[in-house]
Structures are given as structure tokens and as C-alpha cells.
């Protein structure tokens, strides 16, 4: 679309966080020799994000232009990573990787995927293919630093790991936010662009926003009420809420009654969790706990939403379960204005197969070799990656493929992981930077700039507060010799499958599609035959072709002509800024995929684990508890190299309550050491101190993703203000045993002057 003589405007779905805002990217001289991004702004025409954007969206320009962003492959020669051609890079992989796996077996390969993989359709769709073809049990991702508890609990209760209930914020009257800060994070496991505006609208129609968090966060500042709790104690609060609902006879299952199984077991399990016990653990007065239960039960439309603060804890999965139980027992699950299940237009895994019953979710189909952690949704805990590499014996990981992840900073005990990566026989990284993790690779395969690829939100349609279908075409042409990331992954797959480094990718992609089409037809025998489906799909290739298939066979799809006005990718792509498909609608019981066909209110593993909370010691009065912190101009570990975000005050600062500082004789601005008894003196972190009375006394806060002072990286801007790595203080073994998710919050620490 032309806005000025040489400037054109292009739609792009922002790939930088889960809000998935639609943006306009203005480009000068797009088809000339030197196209240039002029500016980025929110797309008012986008029916889903309605013009919202944040500073990170603006930084897409910086990301595109960043001179440190890799544009050519790197291959390690004579101990040094050096620029190479694509052919050289893949030939090198083809030479080294297959022999290793032939000698040591498929499990000798580890695969690890990170957060950006979910934000690029080519990576997400083709990583899944790669993982299947690799045949290794050693699959890891950032999920076990994040949302695995939520997905597992949803799987156990409703039968699918993507049947996640999200707040229907636009119709809600009481929204309780626990362990999340959507005013800054822009929402997670809940795709809700412009949370602030929607929260304001909720309040101005007479609704209430309540935030429960150890810090009076930016979200809490907007709220009607903030309850401060001790980190790690949520299980006591949540179990007490459920108990209150029973003891005050407020359980209302409504329409869902006939489908709920296990209510008596729930009642028995929460019996010991009184409001008084919750008060002792959380610090929230018992009468406020009771009042909250009552408010949730009485509000006509209400939702309790919990996120990463509730997941990265010892009782993460139990917390996530109790949250959905509160919504279920108060009659707010699957009801407008409550916690509802999105139905994605494409890739809605939970719409496949016969409605109302399914295979459900099982865990522990295999276990990690060293610590014996169970597999969960196909993955092992990423915190255990280092020991799987370092511990000799059959099944040891000797080669690794990392895709869009920086676990040296984002996972516990990065120093140990760095040492492990250094000892690998072979490592490949698909990434856009030479950073703390990829510096250990033998081959780095750079992804393209997001502006050079098309995009459809494969995962986030399943988590959106409203239904939509949006596609963004490539904003800028990619350099002709730079393959898209799906082809990088597909070529790795070809190498692992014995087809060699110069396999015919188009043929392989056709073969894989053919398999998908056959699978689609088995799941849904009414679909046209495979050839009749393949023909119209052939206008697209790669991930776009898979999106077209998913849209056509999805709940709004044209079913290849069987439903004449149904969706196709061409139709979605024609809309200037995507299509609105309306508000969320009730989906139970058809959504259920549990073997029983019921909502499993009391999954046995969770009931058993809840009982263990009773063995937790009550908190010591003088302890300091460390929590994390997200800031608008930062994103996990990888956006610290972008000038527009890096400017301004130093962000990697330890926050402490003034009272705690006074008790230790500490002054704001001074450098302090933070650590704990489990760490050598040298491993304590040194970091500047700031005082904030928004924190609960006894709680200190430090953001994660910093520590850019390691040698061998190419991150000039980030290295100027490196910060320290919070995850050096975390334990590789502290995890929620049910989901394998690391404990990253509520860790006891000590702080002293240096
Ligand atoms: N203590 C503590 N630790 C945490 C958290 C916390 O709250 N506290 N949060 C956790 C959470 S929620 C998450 S999701 C994880 C995130 O941890 P990771 O998944 O490791 O993600 P990042 O640290 O963001 O690193 C992203 C990597 O992807 C690369 N990358 C960026 N864009 C692209 C691209 O387009 N293509 C490719 N191929 N690569 C790209 C970057 O260069 C970087 O190497 O961190 C976790 N770690
Ligand atoms: N600007 C920015 N946005 C981001 C990211 C980023 O790094 N920067 N990361 C993205 C990613 S990968 C994710 S997963 C999402 C996460 O999105 P959110 O889940 O909203 O994450 P946070 O902002 O870390 O909010 C977690 C809150 O939990 C609180 N908390 C800590 N411990 C506890 C506890 O024990 N109990 C309770 N109840 N609360 C606790 C913290 O004080 C914090 O306010 O954000 C995404 N968006
Ligand atoms: S909130 Fe910011 S980073 Fe997130 S999608 Fe929107 S513009 Fe991108
Ligand atoms: Mo995350």
C-alpha cells in the first residue's frame, strides 16, 4: 500500500511478545536496491490489537538494522567461529552429526528450543517436524522455565495441553490477577493486546481488578485492590479459596455439573487448608482470604488468572490446577466474562478428533537419564540439560541443536551449562545472534529478520481473548541467498534422516505434507481425498502451505469447498489487517479430550502433591525472598542489544524494601552482593541497589536475562551494560516435580554490602 511516492506501508504481526499486536511498518524504497524501515506504529485497522504497540514493537526497526545480528553462517575452524557459505555450513553438519549419532544412538542428540520459536511460524511448525524425525528423547525447551504447569494441568483436567482457559476480559466484572504483571509483560498464556485499556474499561463499567503479588506492580497500581503475599506461598492461598467455597456452601457448577468428576476428592484434599493456615504462609489476613472467595463466588462474571509467578514454584502445577478449580467451582469456567477456552481458526489441536472424549495427557513415558525426571508433553526439564551432557554413560548427550534459545542466561546455573556445551562433540545453533549460548556452537545458522518472513500466529490463536485470523506477508524481501528458517530446520531434518546435506527440500516438504494430508483425512474422513486437498494448497509453500491447510480444515475453514464461504489463507491475507471472528464462546463439554469424557477435577497426581504442601515449613521471619521482574524495555535475554531499548537508566538493579535496607545498613546506589549458603563466595553476584516500598518487606527483586559479560559473543551494545545473571542463584534441581518446571521465584537469599 502506498503512502508517499517511495514509501509503502506493510502489515506485520509483532513477533516479540504474546500480545501479537498488528503493526504498520513504513518502508522507503522497498523494491529498490536499499530498502529502509522508516518507522513502526500500531495498526488501527487491526480488529484484534486496535492500534496498540509498545516500545519493543518500535524496536523491530533496530532489530532489523542491528549490525550485530548475524546474516551469514558461522563455522568453527581452528577453534574459532568464522563466516562461511550456506553450503559449507550444511556440509560441515552433514559430515559431523550423522556419524556421531550412528555410533552413539539417537538419544545422543539433544534438541532445545526457546521462546522466539513460538513467535515464528516457520520455526514452530518445522521444529516439531525436526523433533519427530530426530527420534531422540532428549527434547527440552523454555516451557520448563515457564508455562509447563499450566499446560500440563489443562491437559490433566480437560484432556489437551492447549485447552487453556483465559480471562474473557471484555465481559468480566471481577478480574483477579495472581503472579502476573500484564501491564508490563503484555500478558502470557493469554493473548490480550492493550491489557491496560481493557483493564480500564473493566473498571469504568463498574468491574473490579484485584492483584495478588509480592510487589505492588504496575498492574497493581491500576487495580482496585492489591494483596501482597509471600513468594512461593500461593498454594496455601489457592487451596484455602477452594476450601472456603465448600465450607460456605458456595460451590456452583451450573451447566457443567454433569461433566465434573472428582469433587469429593477435591473437598477432602483441601480440607486441611484453612484460611488461618493460608494467613501464616502467605501473610494475607484470613478474613481477606475469605472475602476473596466470597467475592469470586458472588460476582456475576469473574475470573481468577494466574501466570508465571504461580508456575515457577515448587507447587506450580498444583497452583495452576487450583486456579482453574476456583473458576470451575464458582461457575465462571467456560462462561462469558469468566475463564473461557479460545477456539483457534487454525491449528486448534483441541478441536480435532471426536468431540467430548479423547486420549488425554500422560506423563512419564520416559525419564531423564541422570535425575529420573519424567517426560512431560514430550519434554524433559531444561534445567537438567547440563547434567545430561556432563554425565558419562549410555544415552549421554554428545551433540546439541539449539533453536532460538539462550539457556546459558535463561536457565538455572548457566555457568555449569556453558561448561557442558563446551564439552559437546558437536553443536548447531539456529539463532540470530552470537551470544552466551551460541558462542559454544560449531555451526551457527542465522535466522532471517522477522521483517523478511511471513507470519501467522500458530500458537497464540489458541490463547487469544477473542477469535481472529491474521496473516502478515514479508515486509521486506530477504537477501536472495538467505534461506528462511523453516528451510534451515528442514535441511537439518534431511541430514538426520540420512538424505544428506544437499537433499531436495521441496520434495521432502511435499512428502511431509502428503503425510499430514493423510493424517487429516484419518482424523476427519469427510474431507476430500488427498489429491483434491493438495491441489489448491500448492499456491503456497513451506509454513504458509501448512497454515492454509490448518485454516481450511479448522473450525471456520472452507474444507476445500465443502463449506463455500469458509476461510482460506488467501482470504485472510487479503484483509488489510486480519479478520475478527468474534468473542469467545462456551466450548464444554465438546472441548473435552479426557479418556473419561469428564472434567477431571481431581487428577490423582495433583491431589497427592497438594498434600505435600502441608510438610512445607512456615516461613522464617527474617528471611529474604528473591523474585524476578520484567521491564517494558527488555525481553528475556535477547533484546539488550537494541539501542532504542538499551537507552535510559541501568535496569539490572536489585530492588529492596527500605526497611530491609535499613536493617542491613545498606544505602541506595551502593553495590551489594547477593547469594546464598549453597554458593561459593566468588559466585555471589554484585549488583547496584535501589529501594522500593512497592515490594513486600522481606522480598528483593532482580530481573533475569542479564549477564552479557561473557567472552566470545558479538553483542556490542548489550556488553556495554552487561548486568548480572540472576539464574546463577537458581538451583538446577529445584523444580516442580510434576511438570519439571524450575523454581525461579521465592528463592531464599542473603544480601550484604561489598
Ligand atoms: N530467573 C528467571 N529466569 C527465566 C524467567 C524468569 O522469569 N526468571 N523467564 C523464563 C521464561 S518465561 C522464558 S520464555 C525463558 C526464555 O528463555 P529462552 O527461550 O532461552 O529465550 P531468550 O532468553 O529470550 O533467548 C532467545 C534466543 O533466541 C534468539 N532469537 C531471537 N529472535 C530469533 C529469531 O527470530 N530466530 C532465531 N532462530 N533465534 C532468535 C536470541 O538471539 C536468543 O538466543 O526464560 C526463562 N528464564
Ligand atoms: N517487557 C517484557 N515483556 C515480556 C517479557 C519480558 O521479558 N519483558 N517476557 C515475556 C515472557 S517469555 C513471558 S512468559 C511473560 C510473562 O508474563 P507475566 O506472567 O505477566 O510475568 P511477570 O511480569 O514476570 O509477572 C510475574 C509476577 O509474579 C510475581 N511473583 C513472583 N513470585 C511470586 C509468587 O511466588 N507468587 C505470586 N503470586 N506472584 C509472584 C512477580 O512479582 C511479578 O509481578 O512476559 C512476556 N512479556
Ligand atoms: S506489546 Fe509490544 S512487544 Fe508485545 S506484541 Fe505488542 S508491540 Fe510487540
Ligand atoms: Mo516465557
From TrEMBL:
<feature type="region of interest" description="Disordered">
    <location>
        <begin position="351"/>
        <end position="370"/>
    </location>
</feature>
<dbReference type="InterPro" id="IPR050123">
    <property type="entry name" value="Prok_molybdopt-oxidoreductase"/>
</dbReference>
<keyword id="KW-0479">Metal-binding</keyword>
<dbReference type="GO" id="GO:0045333">
    <property type="term" value="P:cellular respiration"/>
</dbReference>
<dbReference type="InterPro" id="IPR009010">
    <property type="entry name" value="Asp_de-COase-like_dom_sf"/>
</dbReference>
<protein>
    <submittedName>
        <fullName>Molybdopterin-dependent oxidoreductase</fullName>
    </submittedName>
</protein>
<keyword id="KW-0560">Oxidoreductase</keyword>
<dbReference type="Pfam" id="PF04879">
    <property type="entry name" value="Molybdop_Fe4S4"/>
</dbReference>
<feature type="compositionally biased region" description="Basic residues">
    <location>
        <begin position="359"/>
        <end position="369"/>
    </location>
</feature>
<dbReference type="InterPro" id="IPR006657">
    <property type="entry name" value="MoPterin_dinucl-bd_dom"/>
</dbReference>
<keyword id="KW-0411">Iron-sulfur</keyword>
<dbReference type="InterPro" id="IPR006963">
    <property type="entry name" value="Mopterin_OxRdtase_4Fe-4S_dom"/>
</dbReference>
<keyword id="KW-0004">4Fe-4S</keyword>
<keyword id="KW-0408">Iron</keyword>
<feature type="domain" description="4Fe-4S Mo/W bis-MGD-type">
    <location>
        <begin position="7"/>
        <end position="68"/>
    </location>
</feature>
<dbReference type="Pfam" id="PF00384">
    <property type="entry name" value="Molybdopterin"/>
</dbReference>
<dbReference type="InterPro" id="IPR006656">
    <property type="entry name" value="Mopterin_OxRdtase"/>
</dbReference>
<dbReference type="GO" id="GO:1990204">
    <property type="term" value="C:oxidoreductase complex"/>
</dbReference>
<dbReference type="GO" id="GO:0051539">
    <property type="term" value="F:4 iron, 4 sulfur cluster binding"/>
</dbReference>
<dbReference type="GO" id="GO:0016020">
    <property type="term" value="C:membrane"/>
</dbReference>
<dbReference type="GO" id="GO:0016491">
    <property type="term" value="F:oxidoreductase activity"/>
</dbReference>
<dbReference type="GO" id="GO:0043546">
    <property type="term" value="F:molybdopterin cofactor binding"/>
</dbReference>
<dbReference type="GO" id="GO:0046872">
    <property type="term" value="F:metal ion binding"/>
</dbReference>
<dbReference type="Pfam" id="PF01568">
    <property type="entry name" value="Molydop_binding"/>
</dbReference>
Amino acid at each position: 500500500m502506498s503512502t508517499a511516492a517511495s514509501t509503502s506501508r506493510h502489515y506485520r504481526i509483532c513477533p516479540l511478545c504474546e500480545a501479537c499486536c498488528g503493526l504498520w511498518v513504513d518502508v522507503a524504497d522497498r523494491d529498490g536496491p536499499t530498502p529502509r524501515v522508516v518507522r513502526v506504529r500500531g495498526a488501527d485497522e487491526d480488529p484484534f490489537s486496535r492500534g496498540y504497540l509498545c516500545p519493543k514493537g518500535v524496536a523491530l526497526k533496530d532489530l532489523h538494522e542491528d549490525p550485530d545480528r548475524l546474516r551469514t553462517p558461522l563455522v568453527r575452524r581452528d577453534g574459532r567461529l568464522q563466516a562461511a557459505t550456506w553450503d559449507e555450513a550444511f556440509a560441515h553438519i552433514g559430515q559431523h552429526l550423522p556419524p556421531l549419532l550412528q555410533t552413539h544412538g539417537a538419544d545422543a542428540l539433544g534438541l532445545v528450543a526457546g521462546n522466539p520459536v513460538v513467535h515464528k511460524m516457520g520455526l514452530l511448525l518445522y521444529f516439531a517436524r525436526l523433533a519427530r524425525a530426530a527420534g531422540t528423547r532428549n527434547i527440552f525447551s523454555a516451557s520448563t522455565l515457564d508455562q509447563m504447569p499450566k499446560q500440563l494441568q489443562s491437559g490433566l483436567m480437560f484432556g489437551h495441553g492447549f485447552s487453556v482457559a483465559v480471562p474473557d476480559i471484555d465481559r468480566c466484572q471481577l478480574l483477579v490477577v495472581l503472579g502476573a504483571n500484564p501491564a508490563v509483560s503484555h500478558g502470557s498464556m493469554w493473548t490480550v493486546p492493550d491489557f491496560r485499556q481493557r483493564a480500564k474499561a473493566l473498571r469504568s463499567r463498574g468491574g473490579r481488578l484485584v492483584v495478588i503479588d509480592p510487589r505492588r506492580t504496575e498492574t497493581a497500581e491500576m487495580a482496585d485492590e492489591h494483596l501482597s503475599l509471600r513468594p512461593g506461598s500461593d498454594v496455601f492461598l489457592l487451596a484455602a479459596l477452594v476450601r472456603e467455597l465448600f465450607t460456605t456452601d458456595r460451590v456452583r457448577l451450573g451447566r457443567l455439573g454433569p461433566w465434573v468428576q472428582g469433587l469429593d476428592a477435591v473437598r477432602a484434599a483441601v480440607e486441611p487448608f484453612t484460611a488461618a493456615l493460608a494467613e501464616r504462609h502467605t501473610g494475607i489476613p484470613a478474613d481477606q482470604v475469605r472475602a476473596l472467595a466470597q467475592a469470586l463466588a458472588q460476582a456475576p462474571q469473574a475470573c481468577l488468572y494466574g501466570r508465571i509467578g504461580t508456575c515457577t514454584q515448587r507447587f506450580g502445577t498444583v497452583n495452576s490446577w487450583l486456579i482453574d478449580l476456583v473458576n470451575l467451582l464458582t461457575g465462571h469456567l467456560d462462561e462469558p466474562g469468566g475463564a473461557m477456552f479460545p477456539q483457534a481458526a487454525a491449528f486448534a489441536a483441541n478441536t480435532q478428533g471426536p468431540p467430548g472424549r479423547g486420549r488425554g495427557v500422560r506423563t512419564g513415558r520416559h525419564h531423564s537419564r541422570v535425575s529420573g525426571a519424567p517426560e512431560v508433553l514430550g519434554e524433559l526439564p531444561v534445567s537438567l540439560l547440563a547434567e545430561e551432557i556432563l554425565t558419562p554413560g549410555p544415552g549421554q548427550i554428545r551433540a546439541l541443536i539449539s533453536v532460538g534459545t539462550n539457556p546459558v542466561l535463561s536457565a538455572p546455573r548457566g555457568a555449569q551449562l556453558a561448561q557442558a556445551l563446551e564439552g559437546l562433540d558437536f553443536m548447531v545453533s539456529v539463532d540470530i545472534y552470537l551470544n552466551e549460548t551460541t558462542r559454544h556452537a560449531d555451526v551457527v545458522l542465522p535466522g532471517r529478520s522477522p521483517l523478511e518472513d511471513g507470519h501467522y500466529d500458530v500458537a497464540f490463536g489458541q490463547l487469544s481473548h477473542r477469535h481472529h485470523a491474521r496473516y502478515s506477508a514479508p515486509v521486506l524481501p530477504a537477501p536472495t541467498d538467505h534461506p528462511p528458517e523453516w528451510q534451515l530446520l528442514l535441511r537439518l531434518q534431511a541430514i538426520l534422516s540420512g538424505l544428506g546435506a544437499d537433499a531436495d527440500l521441496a520434495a521432502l516438504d511435499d512428502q511431509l505434507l502428503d503425510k499430514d494430508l493423510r493424517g487429516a483425512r484419518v482424523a476427519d474422513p469427510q474431507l476430500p481425498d488427498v489429491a483434491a486437498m493438495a491441489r489448491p494448497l500448492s499456491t503456497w509453500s513451506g509454513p504458509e502451505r501448512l497454515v492454509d491447510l490448518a485454516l481450511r480444515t479448522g473450525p471456520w475453514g472452507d474444507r476445500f469447498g465443502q463449506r463455500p464461504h469458509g476461510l482460506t489463507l488467501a482470504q485472510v491475507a487479503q484483509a488489510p489487517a486480519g479478520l475478527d471472528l468474534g468473542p469467545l464462546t462456551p466450548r464444554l463439554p465438546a472441548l473435552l479430550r479426557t479418556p473419561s469424557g469428564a472434567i477431571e477435577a481431581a487428577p490423582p497426581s495433583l491431589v497427592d502433591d497438594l498434600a505435600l504442601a502441608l510438610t512445607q515449613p512456615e516461613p522464617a521471619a527474617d528471611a529474604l525472598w528473591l523474585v524476578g521482574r520484567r521491564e517494558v524495555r527488555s525481553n528475556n535475554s535477547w533484546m539488550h542489544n537494541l539501542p532504542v531499548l538499551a537507552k535510559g537508566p541501568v535496569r539490572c538493579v536489585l530492588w529492596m524494601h527500605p526497611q530491609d535496607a535499613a536493617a542491613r545498613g545498606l544505602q541506595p546506589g551502593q553495590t551489594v552482593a547477593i547469594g546464598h549458603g549453597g554458593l561459593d563466595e566468588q559466585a555471589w553476584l554484585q549488583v547496584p541497589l535501589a529501594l522500593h516500598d512497592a515490594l513486600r518487606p522481606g522480598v528483593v527483586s532482580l530481573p533475569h536475562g542479564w549477564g552479557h559479560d561473557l567472552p566470545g559473543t558479538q553483542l556490542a551494545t548489550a556488553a556495554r551494560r552487561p548486568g548480572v545473571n540472576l539464574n546463577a542463584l537458581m538451583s538446577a534441581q529445584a523444580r516442580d516435580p510434576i511438570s519439571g518446571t524450575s523454581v525461579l521465584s521465592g528463592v531464599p537469599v542473603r544480601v550484604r554490602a561489598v
